[in-house]
Amino acid sequence: MRVGTKSVLFGAHCFFIHPFFVAFGWWALGQFPWDPRLWAAFFLHDLGYLFSPNMDGPEGEEHVHLGAKIMGLLFGDWWADFTHRHSRYWAKRNGVSVSKLCYADKLAFAMTPGWLYLPMARATGELAEYMAKSRDRQAGCAVFTQAERIRLESGHPAQWLEGLQSYTRRWVEEHQGGGPDMWTIVANSKAA
User: Fold this and answer.
1) % pLDDT > 90, the chain
2) What is the C-alpha separation between 117 and 160, in angstroms, rounded?
3) Is the entire prediction scored with pTM above 0.85?
4) Which one of 95, 120, 140, 181 is least enclosed by Cβ atoms within 10 Å?
């Protein structure tokens, strides 16, 4: 079974856990998600990880398309676009701004307790990929605090998670107003 399938079934993007944290993230941004279309987006946005051989590689980073396609079929183009733009890497690479779903999704990660996140991500193989990828993405990146960098480089999953969750919370605080994202580094980005 591919890592993306495992992630959606019982990992970090578990279809019966992650959407509720996204809803909490949306609420933390200041508004309870009353609109049923939001709930559909919360449940569908990461379905594109199904059958993906990786999470942050070329295939994994294209995961935005399946959920967006379903949202478009159900609710129209605006909702498809809203769902497409939930990934900051995908959005930056394609020269578009992220949607509010991105901020809620990032807060979902930052709000998921380590006692839940780490066993799920370890069971699927995601944890090793995420830890290795964060080392690659942070190389030469000046936006991590010294404490975050120490945690990220520790090699200990719980410390790594604390460091990345701290960075992610700060990223949301800094960018939720819609300003340009100078923190996200994307190789071969169309948006320099």
Assistant:
1) 80
2) 12
3) yes
4) 140
